[in-house]
Amino acid sequence: MKRRDFLKLGALAAASAQAKQFDAAAQAIFDEQMGLCANKFGAFYVKTIGGRVVGTEPFEGDAMPTVLNNALSDHIQNETRVKYPYVRKSFLADPSNPKPQLRGKEPFVRVSWDEAIKLSAKILKENFDKYGSEAIYGQLYQWGSLGKVGHSQRTAKRMLNALGGYVSELGGYSYGAATAFLPHVTGS
């Protein structure tokens, strides 16, 4: 290859790379969108650029908008968020032999959402059929879900009720602990 051809090729490659960077920047600038959304705290606008949530703005009709929705983009795009369902390798190979001794010692295998739902439904049905609803403890730790979209505890309990019921708690762990020790601290 001649030196002149090499320089032409290099210039062409550099121009192409700059054009791609310009295209990406233009897409980011012109792909900004706002959409009206709602969660348990009320209505708000979500701002996206290139399909990524970058912020929220209060809905003009909300007299007392909350700042809790400002954390929405962190919840959706946090690097610690589990984006796909995973199953322990040996459990996936043979769910009837779960090998609890391998928990924490073997890798997880990514599965499709459909496969994860089918596997979960199968195991839940097997436990209902084998042990009855009195063996299903329907507690789901809820505190971490406050401020996020949806109410996972209520949703899970509705599903368990539809399947035949479950064992519930009275109060909660904080209230239950308080009822046990407060009489010794404050008297009866």
Offer a few descriptive terms.
188 residues; 3 domains; alpha+beta; 45% helix; two-stranded antiparallel ribbon; extended; 6 helices; three-stranded antiparallel beta sheet; single chain; 5 strands
Strand order of the largest sheet: 1-2-3
Mean pLDDT, rounded to whole units? 81
Point out poorly predicted stretches: none
Can you tell me the number of structural domains? Answer: 3
Query: Treating each run of at least 4 consecutive H or I residues as one helix, how many helices?
Result: 6
End-to-end CA span: 95 Å
Helix content: 40-55%
The profile of the biggest β sheet is: 3 strands, antiparallel
Q: Determine Rg (CA atoms, Å).
A: 26 Å
Helix-strand makeup class: alpha+beta
Shape: extended
Strand proportion, as a percent range, falls in: 15-25%
Say how many strands there are.
5
* Order of helical and strand elements: HEEEHEHEHHH
